[in-house]
UniProtKB/TrEMBL annotation:
GO terms for molecular function: hydrolase activity. This is Alpha/beta hydrolase fold-3 domain-containing protein. Belongs to the 'GDXG' lipolytic enzyme family. The chain crosses the membrane at residues 20-37. SUPFAM superfamilies: alpha/beta-Hydrolases. The active site is at residue 205. InterPro entries: AB_hydrolase_3, AB_hydrolase_fold, GDXG_lipolytic_enzyme, Lipase_GDXG_put_SER_AS. Keywords: Hydrolase, Membrane, Transmembrane, Transmembrane helix. It comes from the Eukaryota. The keyword Hydrolase applies.
């Protein structure tokens, strides 16, 4: 039979500290495993990339749990994370002399960046930009820094297309939006003061996919886009670890 003195001699505090230490070590190891990703030796700012990937992973898991208990949709969590990391910082420098405004073309929302020196031109060189984000993330707000810099560096008219995204809108909604706007600009270039011989289609990731598909369609229909600027485009969906 255990006496009262024996019970009192059990090192309760010591056991609790050991458990806490074990939990801390486990969480640290798990965090390192989630943060660390093997990258090429010449990869720029690797820890910044790993840090952002870690929080994207955490938010994805939180979104998954929230979705399971009907608290919120995971896609909204991911979009919120995407916005606060890249979309809430807008570059606006009056010295760049850019006019920025939103409008709708064929019921599709776009953001237009127009260098002021183009005011006197009847036909403007134009870049039609399709943002990336796996067809479910990204918008004109999160890509504002990209399209702003694009207009400032090229001094061309930049049109950023706000196409419909999944899961609210299924394929081919995004392609339909981008295609309809592009064809409208080619067919009615004079109406929009666009030089039809100097139109570039640009996009990264999913946007690169859209830019390439629409470029091929334009060429088949007899149009001649100046070039297609594809930035790490999503050209296949079999292996996402290819260079």
């Amino acid at each position: 039979m255990t006496s009262t003195n024996d019970i009192n001699n059990v090192p309760v505090k010591s056991i609790s500290k050991q458990k806490i230490l074990l939990i801390i070590i486990s969480l640290t190891v798990l965090s390192i495993a989630l943060v660390y990703q093997p990258l090429p030796d010449n990869f720029p700012q690797p820890w910044k990339y790993r840090f952002l990937s870690f929080w994207a992973h955490i938010f994805s898991k939180l979104g998954y749990l929230g979705e399971k208990i009907n608290l919120f949709d995971r896609i909204h969590v991911l979009r919120f994370l995407y916005y606060i990391t890249v979309g809430c910082f807008q570059i606006r420098n009056p010295e760049h002399h850019l006019k920025i405004y939103d409008r709708r073309i064929l019921n599709v929302s776009v953001r237009i960046y127009e260098p002021e020196e183009l005011d006197h031109m009847d036909k403007m060189p134009t870049i039609i930009h399709f943002h990336g984000g796996g067809f479910l993330l990204g918008c004109r707000e999160t890509y504002d820094q990209v399209t702003y810099a694009l207009a400032n560096l090229t001094r061309a008219l930049v049109i950023s297309v706000e196409y419909r995204r999944v899961p609210e809108h299924y394929f081919p909604a995004a392609l339909d939006d981008c295609t309809s706007i592009t064809y409208e600009l080619f067919k009615n270039a004079d109406k929009y003061r666009i030089d039809v011989n100097r139109i570039t289609l640009a996009g990264d990731s999913a946007g690169g996919n859209l830019a390439l598909v629409i470029t091929q369609s334009l060429i088949q229909d007899g149009y001649s886009p100046r070039t297609a600027c594809l930035i790490y485009p999503a050209l296949q969906f079999f292996d996402f670890t290819l260079p």
